[in-house]
Specification:
By secondary structure, this protein is an alpha+beta fold. It has a single domain, classed as ATP adenylyltransferase (HIT family, subunit A, 2-Layer Sandwich), CATH 3.30.428. The strands form four sheets. It has a twelve-stranded mixed sheet. Helix 6 crosses helix 12. The chain binds zinc ion. Zinc ion binds next to helix 1. Its main location: cytoplasm. Belongs to the GDPGP1 family. InterPro entries: GDPGP, GDPGP1_C, GDPGP1_N. Pfam families: GDPGP1_C, GDPGP1_N.
């Protein structure tokens, strides 16, 4: 049996529209100024070459510290400058700065945004949700089909270890450049896509190199309000072409404020913790002696989830020093008809941003009635049960060759663990059985 869900796909590029409406720029080639052989030869794009910094500044960077410690925030201004330019040029489908946003009262501080423009004029499409790894399909929309005007710059490691910027660099297709492009359906200011090695046409799957690139981008932006996110297939990615998303949100995400419990430390000094008092069960990876240490362990964890067909989301925070890994099962439940009609009616797709606590709501009604209990109820549906989470953790820990530190060998879900059962007893899902580990 094949599991599918119907949803309105997010339009991330103007070239993804069902009918190409906009007048193409007339500049030789195919006339669309695209990224294919017809137009790419003489094309030039800015190129930002980052320094391969190894040292991660301090372990627990406070949210306002890292801006001061890393004075060079050139990437930050480049992203925003280029993004603003595309806004002036009218490339976005709506003005995200006009979307209403509020913090939902309560302990978690969930953030609600009313975004009525995001899913307009699109028919629901069927998505297969039971396969995390699917081969790249050239016939479907992919980022090589976007117009050059949607690309902001090329992003790569510098050859000589110094940061370099070239405002007009040729595009060396054979050298596998990575691109940063706008998302034409932004959910916040500066919403962009990082597309690693775009011309290699990689499917949506994390590998060591691409995750390291994403961490480098977070470190280079050096702005704690700039986070990157990743959705696997089956966890609300809609485009099967390797990409991360990123945007600015000038406040902490609820997931970043959730308490954690340390369960392991790697040889490279990466601390691994479990999220507590948060509706979605997940792991937090922090610090490490080098960016590579953090990247290696997180990508190994992601690869193990992919190989075991477990959908997941990733949030990269704190200037690239903190990564949240969240296996999820919402789309699967949805396909099996196990999700409440009331939740489905909201048409909220719990991808990385929603799971992190930034709820992008499509109906005025849901925005007006937004409450912590409602947000919690939705996210609790996304979470694996405690029992399944333990199984998935065992898979991850085997892959990263570490052992979970336990208080004792018998671990029962503590009362104050992921789901606060006293406040939200009606939404507790999953088994309460004890699981013997080791
Ligand atoms: Zn072309």
């Amino acid at each position: 049996m094949m599991l599918k869900i119907k949803r309105v796909p997010t339009v991330v590029s103007n070239y993804q529209k069902e009918e190409a409406g906009d007048a193409p720029r007339t500049v030789g080639g195919c006339g669309r100024n695209c990224l294919k052989a017809c137009c790419i030869q003489d094309a030039k794009l800015p190129l930002y070459a980052f320094k391969k910094i190894n040292k991660v500044n301090g372990k627990d960077l406070a949210i306002d510290e890292c801006q001061e410690e890393l004075p060079l925030a050139f990437l930050d201004s480049l992203v925003l400058g280029e993004w603003e330019d595309r806004m002036q040029r009218g490339l976005f489908r709506y003005d995200v700065t006009a979307c209403e946003t509020k913090v939902i009262p309560g302990e978690c501080g969930f953030i609600a945004q009313l975004n009525e423009g995001r899913h307009l004029k699109k028919r629901p499409t069927e998505f297969r949700v039971d396969k995390v790894l699917q081969p790249f399909d050239e016939t479907k929309f992919n980022f090589t089909k976007v117009g050059q005007e949607e690309v902001l710059f090329q992003f790569e490691a510098s050859e000589d270890g110094e940061i370099q910027f070239f405002p007009n660099a040729p595009i060396d297709v054979d050298n596998s450049p990575s691109f940063v492009a706008i998302n034409v359906s932004p959910i916040e200011y500066g919403h962009v896509l990082l597309i690693p090695r775009i011309f290699e046409r990689l499917p949506q799957r994390i590998d060591h190199e691409s995750l390291l690139l994403a961490l480098h981008m977070a470190a280079e932006a050096a702005n704690p309000y700039f986070r990157l996110g990743y959705n696997s297939l089956g966890a609300f990615a809609t485009i099967n072409h390797l990409h991360f998303q990123a945007y600015y949100l000038a406040m902490p995400f609820p997931i970043e404020k959730a308490p954690t419990k340390k369960i392991a430390t790697s040889n490279g000094g990466v601390k691994i913790s479990k999220l507590l008092k948060y509706p979605v069960r997940g792991l937090v990876f922090e610090g490490g002696d080098t960016l590579e240490d953090l990247s290696k362990i997180v990508s190994d964890a992601c690869i193990s989830l992919q190989n075991n067909n477990i959908p997941y989301n990733v949030l990269i925070s704190d200037c690239g020093t903190q990564v949240f890994l969240l296996p999820q099962c919402y789309a699967e439940k949805q396909a099996l008809g196990e999700v409440d009609a009331e939740l489905l009616d909201t048409q909220v797709n719990p991808a990385v941003w929603e799971i992190s606590g930034h709820m992008v709501l499509k109906r005025k009604k849901d925005f007006d009635e937004a409450s912590e209990a409602n947000a919690w109820r939705l996210l609790a549906e996304v979470s694996l049960s405690e029992e399944r989470f333990q199984e998935v953790n065992a898979i991850i820990f085997e892959a990263i060759e570490l052992t979970e530190e336990l208080d004792d060998n018998l671990q029962c879900p503590p009362k104050d663990d992921a789901v606060d059962s006293s406040t939200y007893s009606t939404v507790v899902t999953g088994s309460q059985e004890c699981v013997v580990l080791q």
